[in-house]
Structures are given as C-alpha cells and as structure tokens.
C-alpha cells in the first residue's frame, strides 16, 4: 500500500509537489519528490469538446480552486481577477457576466436566489443569481479559501483560521460563529462545508469533522479523521481538504495522513475506516470507492470490505484532482492540465488529453450523468464527453 505518510524532508517534498504552502524546515539542497512524466499510452477513449468558454483570467496564478457550480440548466463560475459568470449548461452561451473589480479567493456558492463569493480582502459578497446584481457584502475576520455554502436561509463560510461563520442569506447579518483550534502549520487548502436544513458540517485542519446546529452553531458531534503524530509539524499535518461525500444517511470523509471513513450523519459514529492519505473527496461507482492519494496514486477499493482492487501509480506526484466517475471510466486532471482517463475496472490508462497547459486544480464534476464539467487554471470552462473507440 503506498498511502503511508512521508516524513522529514520527503514530507516537505510531498507538500510542494501538491502545490500547497508549507513553512521551511529542510535545506533547499535536499531532494524533493519529482512528478512522473506524462505516461505514453495507446488509449481507446477520446475526449470530445461539447463546448468551451472563458471565465476571466481563471486562477490567474493564485493557489486557489474556484470550482464552478452546476445548477441544472445553468453553470456558475468565477475567476481570481473578479469575473463572475452565469453560463447556459446546454451550449455554453453566456447568460450574464459581471466584473466585480476586486480579487476573489473563494466561490461560487449558490442557493435559490443568491450567488456568494469571498474577496481577497475577506469580504463575503452576495449577488443575485439572475443578473449578478450585488445584494449585500460584509467583512469576514480573515480570508476564506472554501466556497460559501447556503441552504437558502443561512450561508456558512469557513475561514483559514478555523472559524465557521453563519450569516442570514437575506441581509448578511451574522447569526453565529464556531471556532476550532487549528495547527500552526497547515495546508493552503480548506474543505467546502456542507449545509443542510438543520446542520452545518465543517472539516478542519486539525483533522476533525464537526457537525454544528444550523440554528445556533452549537456542536452536535465530532469525528477525528486524522490524529497528529510525529516529532515535526510536517509529520503532524492532518488537514481535511475535500468536502465530505454524502451517501444516503452517511458521510464518506478522507484526510491527509489520516484515514478514509464512513460515518453516520446524525451521530458521527464510525461505520468503518481504513488508513489513507488524500486532500480530495473520494468518488464512488458500481460498488467501488476511488481515491486520488496524496502521492498521486489512483486506487480502487471494493465497497463491501474496502479491499484494494487496483492501484495506478503512473501518475505519481502529478498533483491530481479528485477522481470523477463516468460510466466505466475514471477521470482525473493534473498540474500540467492533462486529463487522464482510467478504466474503472482495472485502472488501465485508456485516454489522455491536455486541456489547459496552465494546469487543472478545480475538481472535475460529472453533470447530466455522462458529461464532464472542467475548469482549467487559465479560465477555460468546458463540458466534455468521453467517446470510446469501438
């Protein structure tokens, strides 16, 4: 199993390879992990472009994600240089576009009436999702990297210092605040919260998943995904970077240098767990669990007993996105902007395409059952289809 934690300077190399921000601790003359070269494959799956459009300057060199949101017939997307756009999902036509004339660090989040973004100056802004008109803005105590999330009544924002704040979606009035203790050294990554009708679930850099009452922010339960261990701050990193995956009445969570676990939504009780290390949400399909590990391996586990079915290690240290499951295939993006198509059955690489030479950091989304929503670092937003060669 290639999911054991790396220590010392190798750990720092893993962080740098993942494109995260870490503090110094090793000499710059010592070796770092090097990304594997782009695999030379003879694939039988092509990737077709249904449509492509451009959203501002994309990530504009920032270490952000800015994941687009699919909302049925509309896709909402933002860029680091302040462009907010509503795009028709059928053909990519622009419904509306607005330049906020400010740098953005997080977003978008969407509910029935609003679209939410967070600026570099730590302002939460609510816009009308019908035309982009600004409705209100408020100041946050510090910056946020995770997209705001709303149930229509409240909007929750998680800041990088471990606070979860809830605001009235109609006017921006603060409703409550919860503060979690976070380590001195963390990844430059935050998990997007889950917001339900009566509960807000946050995942923090201390390795804990917390369920908070939506009405007053009081803790309902907590679950420890990663337990800090080791002598150095690097060894003790246990960040949770991916939004928990909702599966019926359970949550599937994974952490860096921690574990992959299934827990009950209502109680936080563990159903099962196994060691794992990843900063990205897992994916499930056809009774299997798929994971992009922190070292770049892609692996499949049997859902019934979590037995390892296969590991694809040809993409090691290529800073992969989380996996997206489309039918019989698995798709991941990497830091050079390649999309890699794997067989879900055995992990064989069966397709490849360089989508954006600036890289892909935002998670790939499956929409309409069999299409891929991809947002490249340069600002290219596209809907793609897989076409197996019969």
TrEMBL record:
Which UniProt key words apply to this protein?
Answer: Cell outer membrane, Lipoprotein, Membrane, Palmitate, Signal
Organism name: Marinobacter oulmenensis
> What's this protein's family per the entry?
Belongs to the BamB family.
**Entry's Gene3D superfamilies?**
YVTN repeat-like/Quinoprotein amine dehydrogenase (2.130.10.10)
* Any single GO BP term: protein insertion into membrane
All copies of domain Pyrrolo-quinoline quinone repeat, residue ranges:
81-311
Q: Where is the signal peptide?
A: 1-24
Its recorded name reads Outer membrane protein assembly factor BamB
Q: Which residues form a coiled coil?
A: none
Q: How does this polypeptide assemble, per the annotation?
A: Part of the Bam complex.
């Amino acid at each position: 199993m290639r999911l054991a934690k790396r220590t010392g300077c190798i750990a720092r190399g893993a962080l740098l390879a993942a494109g995260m921000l870490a503090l110094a601790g090793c000499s710059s003359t010592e070796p770092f992990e090097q990304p594997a070269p782009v695999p030379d494959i003879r694939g039988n799956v092509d990737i077709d472009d249904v449509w492509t459009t451009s959203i501002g300057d994309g990530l504009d060199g920032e270490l952000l994600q800015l994941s687009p949101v699919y909302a049925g017939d509309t896709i909402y997307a933002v860029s680091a240089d302040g462009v907010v756009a509503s795009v028709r999902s059928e053909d990519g036509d622009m419904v509306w576009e607005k330049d906020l004339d400010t740098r953005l660090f997080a977003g978008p989040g969407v509910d029935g009436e609003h679209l939410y973004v967070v600026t570099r100056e730590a302002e939460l802004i609510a816009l009308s999702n019908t035309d982009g008109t600004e409705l209100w803005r408020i100041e946050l105590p510090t910056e946020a990297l995770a997209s705001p999330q709303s149930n229509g009544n409240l909007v929750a924002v998680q800041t990088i210092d471990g606070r979860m704040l809830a605001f009235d979606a109609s006017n921006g009035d603060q409703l409550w605040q919860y503060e979690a203790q976070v380590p001195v050294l963390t990844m430059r990554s935050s998990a997007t919260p889950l917001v339900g009708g009566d509960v807000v679930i946050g995942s923090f850099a201390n390795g804990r998943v917390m369920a908070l009452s939506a009405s007053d922010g009081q803790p309902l339960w907590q679950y420890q995904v990663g337990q800090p261990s080791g002598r150095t701050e690097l060894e003790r990193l246990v960040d949770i970077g991916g939004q928990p995956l909702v599966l019926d009445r359970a949550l599937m969570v994974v952490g860096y240098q921690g574990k992959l676990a299934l827990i009950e939504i209502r109680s936080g009780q563990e159903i099962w767990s196994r060691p794992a290390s990843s900063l990205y949400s897992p994916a499930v399909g056809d009774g299997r669990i798929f994971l992009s590990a922190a070292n770049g391996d892609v692996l499949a586990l049997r859902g019934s007993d979590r037995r390892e079915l296969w590991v694809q290690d040809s993409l090691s240290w290529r800073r992969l996105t989380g996996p997206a499951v489309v039918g019989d295939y698995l798709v991941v993006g990497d830091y050079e902007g390649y999309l890699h198509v794997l067989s879900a059955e055995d992990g064989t690489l069966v397709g490849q395409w360089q989508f954006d030479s600036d890289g892909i950091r935002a998670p790939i989304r499956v929409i309409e059952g069999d299409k891929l929503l991809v947002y490249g670092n340069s600002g290219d937003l596209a809907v793609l289809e897989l076409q197996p060669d019969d």
